[in-house]
Write a structure and sequence with these properties.
Layout lengths: L6 H10 L4 H19 L4 H17 L10 H20 L12 H7 L9 H17 L2 H12 L4 H8 L3 H18 L2 H4 L1
Length: about 190
Amino acid sequence: MLPDSTDEEIVRRALLDKEKFSFLITRYEVKLTRYLVRLGVALPEDREDILQNAFIKAYINLNSFDISLSFSSWMYRIAHNEVMNFFRTKRTRPQVILSEDGEALLTELHDETADTTDGAELRLSREILERGLATLNSKYRDVLTLRFFENKSYAQMSDILEVPIGTVSTLVRRAKKALRRALPESFMS
């Protein structure tokens, strides 16, 4: 019954029976690991540590979770904060790694008439995009990751980043503009 339940139903049950929290871990482990990779956490052991810390914080603070809100956004916000703490502590720069999911962003940035169906050209485009993303300020890289790779809505991004929706919209627009400037002109034609 629990695997088909909503996150919020599982949270209600986990508040009564802490073992039910494992269903949330199972539901979010792969998604959050993918998110950590996209935010630039390169080493698997670092991702595991960050994810473990995020789940521990969620478990400890489960009583303070507002059931009327989205658990998904709350969990992503905790993971996001853990990643930012990790980079601050390690004083390292994220290593941007894209997967096939980057096509939405490529489509946004590429001229719609450009032919990106060729495999070699698409691979090259991803490499150029990775380099461009790596040069961006983390706030821009984060919003592009949430929007185009995690497919989060502006409302979800607002919850995760703890900023108003209007700010999210502005950040996405500025991030795309900054990324266009960071990419070679030949990439955009």
